[in-house]
């Protein structure tokens, strides 16, 4: 099932707003508790690797 143009526009705007909101919340949290956010980049890299592997598996099967 394909998405309509309006659904894709909504998804893009939602994604941009969500990333901005999460980024601002993260910056606020880092200022309050800097000790708890030392290895966050490792988690982000791990999530991106898992998503990349998932994408490659789905593309190879379909």
3D structure, described in words:
With 62 residues, the chain is an all-alpha fold. It is built from two helices and no strands. It has helices at 5-32, 40-61.
- As for the number of domains, it is 1
Tally of alpha and pi helices = 2
List segments where confidence is low: pLDDT < 50 over at least 5 consecutive residues.
none
Subunit organisation of the chains: single chain
What is the average per-residue confidence, as pLDDT, rounded to a whole number?
Answer: 91
Largest sheet: none
Helix content: over 70%
What fraction strand? Answer: under 5%
Order of helices and strands: HH
Distance between the termini: 15 Å
Structural class: mainly alpha
Q: Looking at the structure, what is the overall shape?
A: flat
Topology, please?
Blueprint lengths: L4 H28 L7 H22 L1
In summary, what is this structure?
The chain is an all-alpha fold and 62 residues long. Helix content is 81%, strand content 0%. The relative contact order is 0.06.
List keywords for this structure.
single chain, 62 residues, mainly alpha, flat
């Amino acid at each position: 099932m394909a998405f309509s143009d309006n659904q894709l526009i909504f998804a893009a705007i939602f994604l941009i707003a969500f990333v901005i909101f999460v980024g601002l919340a993260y910056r606020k949290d880092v200022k309050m508790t800097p000790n708890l956010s030392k290895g966050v980049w490792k988690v982000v890299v791990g999530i991106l690797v898992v998503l990349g592997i998932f994408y490659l598996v789905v593309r190879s099967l379909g």
